[in-house]
Amino acid sequence: MDRIASASASVRLVSAADKLHNIRSILKDYRMQGDLLWDLFKGGKQGTLWYYRSLVTAFNEAHSTPIVMELDRLVTELERLVQTQRGEVLFKRNFGFTEVKSQKLKSKSHTLRIYRLEILMPQ
């Protein structure tokens, strides 16, 4: 990342395009695999998200381009997707919801989740 600032515009362009391709693949795989995806990365979930956010910052400091803006948009989308999934898990755990069925809708990446409420009563 330190080299991004001093790299030529053409080197930054190629590097940003490579990172853009990578984040698109990560997003696609995350939608299919969920948190299992992070096992493939040395830095895990937090390290990978930090790395891509840091890259966006470094590219923007050097010079923002449409590729960098798209990279930023997709990194933000992944961050939100990860946070949303984490929120669903915490909500289910804290409020006693259990996922009982998941089925694919006709659209490409949306999943319909049907929940059953389990009331947790102290005994």
Describe this structure in words.
The protein has 123 residues and is an alpha+beta fold. It has one domain (2-95). Helix content is 64%, strand content 12%. The protein contains four helices and two strands; from the N terminus they run ααααββ. Strands 1-2 form a two-stranded antiparallel sheet. The protein starts with a helix and ends in a 6-residue tail after the last strand. The model is unreliable at 98-107 (pLDDT under 50).
Secondary structure layout plus pairing:
Elements: H1 2-6, H2 9-33, H3 44-62, H4 66-95, E1 97-104, E2 111-117
Antiparallel strand pairs: 1-2
Helix pairs in contact: 2-4, 3-4
Shape: elongated
Structural class call reads alpha+beta
Number of domains: 1
- Tally the beta strands: 2
Q: How would you write the strand order of the largest sheet?
A: 1-2
Radius of gyration: 19 Å
Largest sheet: 2 strands, antiparallel
Please write the string of helix (H) and strand (E) elements: HHHHEE
The N- and C-terminal alpha carbons lie at a distance of 55 Å
Helix content class: 55-70%
Low-confidence stretches: 98-107
Give the overall pLDDT as a whole number: 80
Features:
about 120 residues; alpha+beta; two-stranded antiparallel ribbon; 4 helices; 2 strands; about 10% strand; elongated
Offer a concise description of the structure.
This protein has about 120 residues and is of the alpha+beta class. The chain contains four helices and two strands, in the order ααααββ. It has helices at about 1-5, 10-35, 45-60, 65-95; strands at about 95-105, 110-115.
